[in-house]
Design goal:
It contains six helices and no strands. By secondary structure, the chain is mainly alpha-helical. It is about 55% helix and about 0% strand.
Length: about 120
């Protein structure tokens, strides 16, 4: 819903959302990947899937890109919000406890690190 408020259109939402995202994260973004991600999102928003895991496109996204579409959508929305609210001044930074977590290894099996993958480039 945060993405919907940023895009702010009534018609052709998928096309406009993809264009908005590409403008924010760069035109090198894979448009097919973004469209599939929007179909996963759309199934939940429009009631075709009561749960994101029941979306017919969820498994396809995971197979095609090897990552959870929920995670990718979170990364995209976070990047878009940082740009819209903070004008790009709030940069991504790794977890300050990563060294401690890696050394102890306690959290590696339970939690995924929040490092963005190739869906969005890291901020410089």
């Amino acid at each position: 819903m945060a993405l919907d408020s940023l895009v702010n259109v009534r018609n052709k939402h998928t096309m406009e959302a993809v264009n908005y995202i590409k403008k924010i994260i760069g035109h090198t973004a894979d448009e097919g990947r973004l469209r599939l991600l929007m179909r996963v999102r759309g199934a939940v928003i429009h009631g075709a899937a009561p749960d994101v895991y029941e979306s017919e496109n969820y498994a396809q996204y995971y197979v095609d890109y090897g990552t959870d579409p929920i995670r990718d959508l979170e990364l995209i929305v976070a990047k878009c919000l940082r740009e819209a609210i903070f004008d790009g001044q709030l940069k991504y930074h790794p977890d300050s406890n990563k060294t401690h977590i890696d050394k102890n290894g306690k959290f590696q099996d339970k939690f995924r690190m929040s490092m963005p993958d190739t869906i969005i480039p890291l901020d410089a």
